């Protein structure tokens, strides 16, 4: 019985961290390093910063769940805290440990990496406490933090120039997805007193803002190829695997703007991120 309880508790902590999101952050750092310098050397620095990004993102997720227990009881009752799988205090301790570990790893590389890790930690906490209630500010902050993972890869190898393009894509894509997630969670957020974009402006106006970000992703995505920065492999992968999928997501929202359809679109976009990462990686290869 104790072993089963311990395993359930461990599973709850893993779910708090959202390992798939952490994997995306880890890959983004490595990819950012590769695109910035054409290699991932020094490998140790890249791996350390990638691990730090994963830990800080996981810390932010855990802290968000710690603060969102009342909202999650309505929107996501199966989450670890409202379901009783993990205690609220345990989630807070888990988040603090991950924040400390992540910033500590940044210090192990250099002062720039440490400073970035500290800024990321502060923004993640401020986002949960205050920024997400400011109109569009929270969505933009999460988008910027996602883009920063690529730049962090550049910091690891001492050259950030090549990491800017994927950082811009990540910002636009993530900001759009965050708004879609707010539409998905509007019922619980409203009952909990949160003030997201769809609550303030209504779901339809919020959807249009999300569509603007998605349209920008589609419009700018071919340009790295036309400017001869990325290869033909990138263009084929991004148009077929990302742009067409985003067009489907846009049409889905336009034809059926419900919390269920928003949840479906958010999930599709989450997995489409991996195709986008693959497209950017292929961009550095010559056909």
Summed up, what is this model?
The chain is an all-alpha fold.
Break the fold down into its secondary structure elements and pairings.
Layout: H1 2-17, H2 19-37, H3 43-67, H4 69-75, H5 88-109, H6 111-129, H7 137-157, H8 164-184, H9 186-191, H10 197-201, H11 203-220, H12 223-226, H13 232-255, H14 259-283
Count the domains.
Answer: 1
Cα gyration radius (Å): 19 Å
Average of the residue pLDDT scores: 90
Strand/helix succession: HHHHHHHHHHHHHH
CATH topology: Tetracycline Repressor, domain 2
- Strand residues, percent: under 5%
Given helix and strand content, the structural type is mainly alpha
CATH superfamily membership: UbiA prenyltransferase
Shape: globular
Low-confidence stretches: none
N→C terminal distance? 57 Å
Task: Write up this protein.
There is one protein chain. By secondary structure, this protein is an all-alpha fold. The chain has a single domain, classed as UbiA prenyltransferase (Tetracycline Repressor, domain 2). The chain is 81% helix and 0% strand. Helix 8 packs antiparallel against helix 11. The longest helix has 25 residues. It starts with a helix and ends with a helix. The mean pLDDT is 90.
